[in-house]
Amino acid sequence: MSWWRKRPYRSIRSIGIATGVLASVLTAAATVAPAHADRGVGGEIGVRYDSLGGSGGFLGEPLTGEVRTPNARGAYVVFRDGSIYWSPATGAWEVHGAIRDTWGRTGWEGGPLGFPRTNEVRTPDGRGAYNVFEGGSIYWSPVTGAHVVRGAIRDAWGDYGWEGGPFGYPTSSEFDIPGGKRTNFQNGWIEWRPTGITMAAESGVPGCPAPRWGASPTEAVTCLMRAWEQRRGDVMANHTSNALVGEMLEWDVAPYTFEGCERTADPITQTSAGIECSVYFPPVPGDGMIHGVGVYFGIGLYDHGAWIEDFETIG
Predict the structure, then answer these.
(1) How do residues 245-303 score in pLDDT, each as one tens digit?
(2) How far, CA to CA in Å, does 72 sit from each of 68, 76, 89, 113, 165?
(3) 91: alpha, beta or left, given left = phi > 0 and alpha = psi -120 to 50?
(4) 170 three-class SS
(5) Nearest Cα to 107, choosing from 80, 128, 143, 138?
(6) Which residues pair with residue 184 across a beta bridge?
(7) Strand 121-122, strand 91-95: pairing
(8) Where would I find the H helices in the chain?
(9) CB 141 within 8 A of CB 151
């Protein structure tokens, strides 16, 4: 990586140039020269800086030249309103605002998050922003502030739709609990222990938290029924394994995943609710095929009993 950039130079060959002409030449030279050249902002950091508008962008003027990071793995430049960090493995990315402050409290690039892997990105709902780092992410919204999400907790949160899912934005960074770690969210929490992940969140279906691993079959069937009434296929899928598969089926292959559930148009009886769910198994090594079943469930409208009506092979 280039550690400096030559300052543009224009020679004046005529000794007899008038003072006014000389001033014009110097002014033109200053115009041609990048505003940040005298600070030595070059290489990939300079390219990133220019792509963000240079001194006229949101980062503003550079306050430092390019500085080696203490771990000697990369470099950075501090600007008026943020920083750009670079390493050979990650490239050059900007970090600013509350996300940068939170990253700094974790130890910058020398902490568990490592170097940034993205610029600050707006979330799809338009309510917040995030940066992805080597070891996790920091998510921010004006309501919740900026918090670190990482490891298995981040993976589980992502499986349920990130900030757009039932959990919403994180309201805490990861913290210690007896035997594990926990992160709190707007609508629930996710905990990690060596034995696995546990979680709870509000689903938007009254009286039915989702996802809720460990729900009893009775609790899960109740949630299935309420979610069926509201056509909430995501909530039905979150509880199907507890309600039916774990109790009524014995799969020879695991793990399996529910990709979603829908109301069926024609339940077998007038007193039952029909639910169709797609269950997928891992591909067989060397096969490459998608394997699974479409499972058709019946749930009693009055007694909330549950039963399996039919199967359909997928793949």
Answers:
(1) 555 555 544 556 666 788 876 655 566 778 888 777 766 666 666 667 777 777 777 77
(2) 6, 11, 13, 16, 39
(3) left
(4) strand
(5) 138
(6) 189
(7) unpaired
(8) 19-32, 43-51, 97-105, 151-159, 217-229, 233-240, 246-248
(9) no
